Amino acid sequence: MTDFAASSPISERRARSQAWWNAVNAWLLLLPAAVLLVAFTHWPILATIRHSLFITKRNGTEVFVGADSYRAMAADPIFWKALVNNFWFALGTIPTSIALALIMAVWVNRNMRGRGFLRLAYFTPTVLPMIAVANIWLFFYTPDYGALDQLRGLFGLGGRNWLGDPSTVMGCLIVMVIWKEAGFFMIFYLAALQQLSPDLDEAASIEGASRWYTFRRITFPLLMPTTLFVAINAVINSFKLVDHLVIMTKGGPNNASTLLLYYIYEVAFTFQDSSYAATLTVVLLMLLSAIALIKFGYLDRRIHYQ
Amino acid sequence: MRGRTHPVEAVAAWLLALIWLAPLAYAFWSALHPAAYATSFSLSAPWTLENFTRAWKQAPFARYYLNTVVLVTLVLVGQLILSTLAAYAFARFRFKGSGMAFALVLLQLMIMPDVLIVENYRAIAKLGLLDTIPAIALPYMASAFGIFLLRQTFKSVPQELVEAARVEGAGPLVILWRVYVPLARPTYVAFGLVSVSYHWNNFLWPLIVTNSVEARPLTVGLAVFGAPETGVDWSVITAATVMTMAPLLIAFLLFQRQFVQSFMRAGIR
Q: Which of A122, A188, A274 lies closest to B118 in CB terms?
């Protein structure tokens, strides 16, 4: 029947109108989502780039300034500070939380007593609002009165202004974020571990391989795709995680804890300089696009379209 | 790896679990005790709910709860409808430009509305929606993540079921509603849980676009309430913090398995 359809001119026309009808239906289905996506993702991306090339005068008129804002940005020490902070923040949080996540997943995956409780304990921080977490940890770090200084007091150590000291503030925030994120990453390792064949372990133990050896030479390499996936997501996350700064440090002291997105927020909504905020956003967009290229160009080809 | 566990490892696992729960336990401790015991742990410390009543009286938390519930419902319903329709188009229709359109959708996985705060604020202001709950919800209603998850699920629906429905004379929308949607239930649950947790906890964007008690969600209300300049007692702030996270925490404790599986399902993609 299909052969007949292909050769007859009438059904060929019908097939073409069928295809046309198909496309109309599909675009109608897409329309509502497409409108909102364009309005709040694609258009803003283009508008950001455009606004970074203009400045708005006091009377509301826009003046084209070309790369002036970018030159100003290159000379802005706070921008560089935020960028460098983002780097240290990512470096401080990601490897440690991934390592912890892997250990947690391996433990929870065992027939250990109370593994349900362990999983619960590790995962709980994931469901808490960052802002609530910031409130709790803010109190830990309160000088003298807070839990950390009380603990130090037991060993006869004096109080410290943890969040008020540029040399300790980043470390404090990193510890908190590790606590918040490790359990989330654990989930992905747990899923991967459950998909590994138990035969592998069995075979290894029959061969007399030690558990550490099995982990290092068999399990860990097999988990490599998961590790890459988690790492990419963690990097993206590290650019978005700024809620806690609003409550804990406001980027201070002396911009020691500011991050790029927080600086954008400050420039746009505290200093009311939306064209400079657009310039800073362009940098953030470029960073995220670079990560996207790595992800889609290199990692996801296999994961998505299998 | 599933064999016996060395006792040292078991101890380490438990120790880590206790450390992981300590901040939370600490928050509950100081929320449930008078301010004088906020930092001194004594078994004889009297228990009290006074911090909660004081927090509840000092700020309009009832309204904040309502706002958050309205917000997460609005976002979820919008996301479910829009993603279902779009995912259906991508999964079962062949049309020119579908690959390009899908790539443009996926872009939002990388560049989420969270980082486009400056321009989205401009857009919301132009729409005259500043300081309303729809203003918080709108940028998130079309979810690339939802479209992506549902498209994967819809693609795995057996073609025979679709054919059978078509033979019975069902049109595309009826087939979507009768065949695809029921079969995608686990995906809907997973996406729903992740979405609700995300928007219950979301903070920066709501902080930017809201300015009044009528529109503020819980997270922003908590931040306003706990700001150092308000001079509120630490114990009362912790009580408010516990109130903010309690609904999700309780839901998580009750449906732990679904939560973990949903985050897993949503994350593997």
A: A274
- pTM for the structure as a whole: 0.88
Amino acid at A186: M
A51 contacts B82? CB cut-off 8 A? no
Residue B10, number of CB atoms within 10 A of its CB? 17
Minimum-distance CB partner of B252 among A32, A127, A281:
A127
pLDDT at B214 over 80: yes
Does B39 sit within 8 Å of A127, measured CB to CB? Answer: no
* Amino acid at residue number A229: F
Q: In chain A, what residues touch B142 (CB-CB under 8 Å)?
A: 32-37, 40-41
Q: What is the mean pLDDT of the segment spanning B18-31?
A: 88
Q: How far apart are CA B200 and CA B189, in angstroms?
A: 16
Rg of the Cα atoms in chain A? 26
pLDDT tens, position by position, B143-159 = 999 999 999 899 988 88
Quote the Cα angle for B188-B189-B193, to 5°. 115
HSE-CB at B90 with a 13 A cutoff on CA atoms is 28
Name the range with the highest mean pLDDT among A142-151, A209-218, B5-14, B124-133.
B124-133
Q: How many CB atoms lie within 10 A of CB B167?
A: 8
Residue of B nearest to A109 (CA): B2
- What's the one-letter identity of residue B138? L
A136 close to B (CB below 8 A): yes
Could you tell me if B215 and B71 are in contact, meaning their C-beta atoms sit under 8 angstroms apart?
no
Contact status of B112 with chain A (Cβ, < 8 Å): yes
State the DSSP string of chain A. Answer: -HHHHHH-HHHHHHHHHHHHHHHHHHHHHHHHHHHHHIIIIIHHHHHHHHHTTEEE-TTS-EEE-TTHHHHHHHT-HHHHHHHHHHHHHHHHHHHHHHHHHHHHHHHHHS--TTHHHHHHHHHHHHHS-HHHHHHHHHHHTSTTTSHHHHHHHHTTPPP--GGGSTTTHHHHHHHHHHHHHHHHHHHHHHHHHHHS-HHHHHHHHHTT--HHHHIIIIIHHHTHHHHHHHHHHHHHHHHH--HHHHHHTTT-STTTT--HHHHHHHHHHTS--HHHHHHHHHHHHHHHHHHHHHIIIIIHHHHH--
Q: Is B87 buried (19+), middle (13-18) or exposed (0-12) by CB count in 10 A?
A: buried
pLDDT in tens, A70-109: 988 989 999 999 999 999 999 999 999 999 999 999 888 8
Across the interface, of B120, B203, B249, the residue whose CB is closest to A131 is B203
Residue of A37, A122, A278 lying closest to B142 (CB–CB): A37
* Residue range A196-216, pLDDT digits in tens: 777 777 777 777 777 788 788
